[in-house]
Amino acid sequence: MNSVDPWGLLTFAIDFSGTVGGGAIATGGETLVIDSHGNYGVVDHSGAGAGAPSGSVAAQFQYTNAETIHDLGGSSVSVGASLGPGVQGTGEYIFAQTYTGFSLGLAGGPGLPAEFHGVVEYATVRQNGNIWDDLRKLFHFLFGDAPCE
Fold it and tell me: Residue 126 needs a FRET pair 20 to 30 A away by CA distance; which of 24, 30, 35, 113 works?
């Protein structure tokens, strides 16, 4: 629990992904994520589903109510749409067994000016650290064991 997220259930992320196909689609990407406990890492994800003919790359901001970044591993389902000529606005609703979320961003590539899609994805979390532990280590490196006064 903390003052930013009183329930301790929050992840924020920036996702970079690509999707290709027509009818049947494949997707994959990398997500840089941090949770309200200070854990940060990278999530590798890939999947398949159905959608309009397209080939695109996307950058999206993502929010979930997962307790930690570790909960983002495993299977999830995303349904969403993209709209616009050329560079498109894109959004997805994400749901998994232990969390839900959404993402909003921009996508671009050849395809229709509007598309809908649904995919089943599998994600692997690679934790890189905890920001609070990293700050504590930096403090000890800079100041040793000096008391805070």
Answer: 24
Each residue of 44-61: pLDDT tens digit? Answer: 999 999 998 888 999 999
Query: What range does the domain containing 70 cover?
Result: 11-143
Whether residue 66 is contained in a domain is answered as yes
Q: Which two tokens stand for residue 119?
A: 């995919």
pLDDT tens digits along 116-147: 999 999 999 987 899 999 998 888 888 887 55
Residue pointed to by tokens 């280590």: 137
Residue 82: give its domain's CATH number: 2.40.128
